[in-house]
TrEMBL record:
Organism per entry: Crepidotus variabilis
Major location (coarse): membrane
Subcellular location field: Endomembrane system
Protein name according to UniProt: diacylglycerol cholinephosphotransferase
Upper classification of the organism: Eukaryota, Fungi, Dikarya, Basidiomycota, Agaricomycotina
Recorded metabolic or biological pathway in which this protein acts: Phospholipid metabolism; phosphatidylcholine biosynthesis; phosphatidylcholine from phosphocholine: step 2/2
Length: 417
C-alpha cells in the first residue's frame, strides 16, 4: 500500500496548471531573459533537475554563511565577520535560483513533462528556500539573533502560505504586481549587493537621517528607525496587501461557485497556530540561561521551523493536485508543542522537564530539527515514489513513449524499459 490512496492518484489526471503573473518586471524585463536562458538547456535535462540545481545553489550559500560565520551556529553570543565579497556570491546565487525556478516550468513544457509532480517539486524547493533566505537576508541586514529575524520568518512564511492557500481554493497560482518570487527576491538581491559593497553596518543607519529629512518638522515626529528595521516594516505593509489580495481572489472564486467565503478563512488558522507555537517556545521565561533567541540553537530552531512549514504546505499542494481535503492538522507539530509547553512550565511554578539548561535546550532543538528533517524527507520520498509509479514517469529523467509504446530515456543512446 502506497502513501497516496488510489482515488488521490486517479485525481492526478484531472490536474492542470493555471497561473497568473501580473508583475511588470517579470513580463518586460525577466521573462525575455528566461525565454533565452531555457534554450541553453538540452531537452534531455529534466525540469526537476533544474529546480533542484537552484535549491543546491542556495544551500551552498547557506553553507558559506556557516563556514565564514561559525559563531552564529556554535556560540551563545558573538558573530564572526565574514568577508564582504561573500554577499556578492549570495546575490549571484539567489539570482540563479530565481532564474532556474522560473525556467523549470518552461523546460517542462518543452519536454512534455509538465504535470503535478513538477508543481509539487517546485513548490517544495521554494518552501525550503524561504527559510534559508530569511536567515541569509537577516544576516546581511545585521539583524542576527533578534525578534526582527523572527518577524521576518513569520511574514515570509505567511506570504508563501497565503499563496498556497489561495491556489488551493481558486485553482490557480496568482502573482500580483509585487510578489515574493519576483520583486521580493530582487529586493533581497539588492540587500546582498549593498552589504557586499558597504557591509552589514550600512543597514544600522537611521532611515530619515540618511535621506536628510530628520530635521523636517513633520518628519522629526515620526520614528527614525534603522534601515534594516524599516525594511521589516515595509515587509509588514506588503504582507497586509497580499492578505487583502489573496482573500479577495478567494472570495470571488467562492462567490462564483456559490460557496461560503468564510469557511476558507478557517484554513488560515493552522498557520496562525504554528506561528504562535514557535513564538511561545522562543519567548519562554529564562531558566538556567536557557534562551533560544540568544543562543547557538537559534539557527537550527529556524531550520526546524522551516522544515515543518515545508511539510505543512507540501501537504496543502498535494491536496490541491489530487483534489483532496485541506490538511488542517500536521502531526509534525507535536514535537514543537512539546518544546513550547515544556519551556513555559515555569509560568505555573514548575521547572522544565526536558530543557533544564541551555545545553539541554540546544540538544532538544537539534533533535526537533532532525525529526522535522526526517519527516519531510519521508513525505517527499513517498509522494515522489507514488506519483512516478502511477504516472509512469521519472523525477529526474525526461522519459517519453516511443512508437512501440515503451518508455524511453530522452538522453542520447540511453533506453529504459
Amino acid at each position: 500500500m502506497g502513501y497516496l490512496p488510489q482515488q488521490s492518484l486517479e485525481n492526478l489526471h484531472k490536474y492542470s496548471y493555471k497561473g497568473v503573473d501580473k508583475s511588470l518586471v517579470s513580463r518586460y524585463v525577466l521573462n525575455p531573459f528566461w525565454n533565452w536562458f531555457v534554450t541553453l538547456w538540452p531537452l534531455w535535462v529534466a525540469p526537476n533537475t533544474i529546480t533542484f540545481t537552484g535549491l543546491s545553489i542556495v544551500l551552498f550559500n547557506f553553507a558559506t554563511m556557516l563556514y565564514y560565520d561559525p559563531l552564529y551556529l556554535t556560540e551563545k553570543e558573538g558573530f564572526s565577520n565574514p568577508p564582504q565579497w561573500i554577499y556578492y556570491t549570495w546575490a549571484a546565487g539567489l539570482f540563479l535560483y530565481q532564474s532556474l525556478d522560473a525556467i523549470d516550468g518552461k523546460q517542462a513544457r518543452r519536454t512534455g513533462m509538465a504535470g503535478p509532480l513538477g508543481e509539487m517539486f517546485d513548490h517544495g524547493c521554494d518552501a525550503l528556500n524561504t527559510t534559508l533566505e530569511v536567515i541569509l537576508a537577516s544576516r546581511a541586514l545585521g539583524l542576527g539573533r533578534s525578534w526582527w529575524t523572527v518577524a521576518s520568518q513569520i511574514a515570509t512564511l505567511a506570504n508563501f502560505y497565503l499563496t498556497t492557500w489561495e491556489e488551493y481554493h481558486t485553482g490557480q497560482l496568482f502573482l500580483g504586481h509585487f510578489s515574493g518570487p519576483v520583486e521580493g527576491i530582487l529586493l533581497i538581491i539588492i540587500i546582498f549587493l549593498v552589504s557586499g559593497y558597504a557591509g552589514p553596518a550600512f543597514w544600522d543607519q537611521k532611515f530619515w537621517t540618511i535621506l536628510h529629512l530628520d530635521q523636517m518638522p513633520i518628519i522629526s515626529k515620526l520614528p527614525n528607525l534603522p534601515l534594516n528595521e524599516s525594511f521589516m516594516v515595509f515587509g509588514a505593509l506588503g504582507l497586509i496587501l497580499n492578505i487583502s489580495n489573496s482573500y479577495y481572489n478567494v472570495r470571488v472564486t467562492m462567490h462564483k461557485q456559490r460557496k461560503s467565503h468564510l469557511k476558507p478563512l478557517l484554513y488560515l488558522l493552522p498557520f496562525v497556530f504554528t506561528a504562535l507555537l514557535q513564538v511561545a517556545w522562543l519567548s519562554h521565561p529564562k531558566y538556567n540561561n536557557s534562551w533560544i533567541l540568544e543562543s547557538a540553537a537559534f539557527v537550527p530552531f529556524l531550520c526546524a521551523w522551516g522544515l515543518q512549514f515545508a511539510h505543512q504546505v507540501g501537504r496543502m499542494i498535494l491536496a490541491h493536485v489530487t483534489k483532496g481535503d485541506f490538511p488542517a492538522w500536521d502531526w509534525v507539530w507535536i514535537w514543537s508543542v512539546l518544546g513550547a509547553v515544556d519551556a513555559n512550565l515555569p509560568l505555573i511554578g514548575i521547572a522544565p522537564i526536558i530543557q533544564r539548561s541551555n545545553k539541554h535546550t540546544t540538544v532538544f532543538v537539534w533533535i526537533t530539527f532532525a525529526v522535522s528533517f526526517l519527516a519531510y524527507a519521508r513525505f517527499v520520498t513517498l509522494v515522489i515514489r507514488d506519483i512516478t509509479n502511477f504516472l509512469g514517469i521519472a523525477c529526474f529523467t525526461v522519459r517519453k513513449k516511443d512508437a512501440k509504446g515503451e518508455w524511453q530515456d530522452a538522453r542520447p543512446n540511453v533506453k529504459r524499459a
